Amino acid sequence: MSYVAEDVALRLAAVSRHFPVAVDLGSGGAVADVLTSSGKCDTVWRADALAAGPGRPDLVLDEEALPFAPASLDLVVATLTLQAVNDLPGSFAQIRRALKPDGLMLAAVAGGDTLTELRESLLAAEVELTGGASPRVAPFADLRALASLLQRAGFALPVADTDRLTVRYPNLFALMADLRALGATSSLTDRLRVPARRALLVRAAEIYAERFSDPDGRIRATVEIVSLSGWAPHESQQKPLAPGSAKTRLADALGATERPAGEKAGDGGGGRT
């Protein structure tokens, strides 16, 4: 979370705006501290799905049923929480509705390559031992899908980019213990309801070590962080020109020679000989 909070600080520093009312959605308070220290926010509300954790949130809420009035917020920062909701398009739409015109949303979610090594190892082990497989690692949306969801929710000037981090562990069991401590165990409704057999986990650990370990024996786990930003529409924002309204040709701007379609470079306009 500290990595994401630092990234939020950098992105916020690049925005020459003041945000009277801001909400830290789901960071456990890490982002609230960043927003307060930035000097760009007058009031910062800390909102979380759980009341537990360091400090106490100002609001305990469900990310799929946000309690904010329409056009009541200037800034919403949602970090590493929205990938767990059942209706991500709906959550984006609610955030968009809660923002004032020209309000900003910054979000960070786990991307599609997150825990890909764990997913592959468990799948290979289960196919080998049972001849079939059950979903054991929840899927994550990829960059293009998330960017499309921003547009679908009605955000203006949407931007999406990604960072890939590598976290190393002694073995698969240390990785799974860390995920369990984070509350990041599988929440899929179609998963098997019985505990995984020991033989499956032992074989998955062997496959993981064979395919995704470094020379020192430690295994690698990929965490992809997709950073998103979007603005509530406002008349002052830049808008794309209508198709066909350009006043300068692309060839002139590039200093290139324009040729008729189908003519090869070097033909000199004579076509085939």
Automatic annotation (TrEMBL):
The keyword Cell membrane does not apply. Pfam families: Methyltransf_23 (PF13489). Keywords: Methyltransferase, Transferase. One of its GO terms (molecular function) is methyltransferase activity. Gene3D superfamilies: Vaccinia Virus protein VP39 (3.40.50.150). The keyword ATP-binding does not apply. GO terms for biological process: methylation. Residues 234-273 are annotated as: Disordered. PANTHER family: ARGININE-HYDROXYLASE NDUFAF5, MITOCHONDRIAL (PTHR13090). This is Methyltransferase domain-containing protein. It comes from Segnochrobactrum spirostomi. The lineage of its organism: Bacteria, Pseudomonadati, Pseudomonadota, Alphaproteobacteria, Hyphomicrobiales.
